[in-house]
Amino acid sequence: MIILKETMTRQLKSCKWGYRANPLSVCEPCTSPLPLYDWMYLLFMVLISFVLHCIAIDINTNRKSSYSTVLMHTSAFLECSIAALCTLLLLSPTSELRLHSCGVTSIQDWYSVFYNPTLQGGTTLHCTQEVVYPLYTSVMIYFSLQIPAMIIFRPIFSNKRFTQRGVDSASPIYGALYFLPLLVLLQTVAGGIIYYSFPYLALILSVVSLTVHLSHFQDQNISALFSQSLCNARSFCILLLCFFLHGYGIFSLVISMMDISQHSIMAGCLLLLVPAPYLIYILTSKHTDPEKLDSHTVQ
After folding, report:
1. Could you please report the per-residue DSSP string of 172-224?
2. What gap in Å lies between CA 283 and CA 276, rounded to an integer?
3. For residue range 198-217, what is the model confidence (pLDDT) as tens digits?
4. Nearest to 167 by CA among 175, 158, 176
5. Three-state secondary-structure class, residue 20
6. In terms of domain of life, where is this protein from (predicted)?
7. DSSP assignment, residue 229?
8. DSSP string, 261-292
């Protein structure tokens, strides 16, 4: 009986990478196409790293040297794009721009390390595996490939022949070397939470970023806000990025709640709400100006 138990224990093990157990506890290869919502999650992780690159570049470069700043942003875009493309080509099916998926049924799939089975004798079988393949490894590979991509492209675009004087091209690289490991740690610890909440995170980030950006303008009149945010190239690019994040969050939220193929008209109508936070801020700015509020308080 003891020998039989030991034999069964040896036979019970986790599935191979890219495999998942079926209802009969038999490991099967994951050959299902990656769902649209999972694609949106992966793209969100790509966007997060790109936005952080842009923030690091914008903080550490001279805003007067717009040409050099554009070159640095172009380098960041190429780094993220090439890292994402190489990640797709490396994963199954290899050398193809598509991915196989094991599927996600619940948040427990993301944390299989906490759900190892225990036998009657108290023996714990360590069957930890990537149940949500490829959502864990693809993001990890993408973040890892960004470092060599940055080492290759960033020196080219920050060459003194192309950039202007007074441009600090090293600080954005140092910043990336800090936030990329933090993103890996965040994906490891909170990957499942981000997977289920990234549409809301995109909406919150877009609204907060837009509000902070518009609040930096000294003149908070309606006409001044329109002209300053639309006529300035840097401000207009930030505005477009906030609009894209807001639309991305709305579209992802619609996908998570309904079949987009059957509710395409509703999804299109909801996307019309993309400029809503921008218009609400500008139209209500005169009622929330701190100077006017202070003057009313004194009176």
Report:
1. HHHHHHHHHHHHHHHHHHHHHHHHHHHHHHHHHHHHHHHHHHHHT-S--SHHH
2. 10
3. 999 999 999 999 999 998 88
4. 158
5. strand
6. Eukaryota
7. H
8. TT-HHHHHHHHTTTTHHHHHHHHHGGGS-HHH
**Coil, helix or strand at residue 57:** helix
The two three-digit tokens of residue 57, written as one number: 């570049």
Residues 6+ apart with CB under 8 A from 170: none
C-alpha span between 143 and 187 (Å, rounded)? 10
CB contact at 8 A, 157 and 76: no
End-to-end CA distance of the chain: 90
> Over the stretch 103-149, which tens digit does the pLDDT of each residue have?
999 999 999 888 776 666 666 666 778 889 999 999 999 999 999 99
The span from the CA of 124 to the CA of 20, in Å, is 20
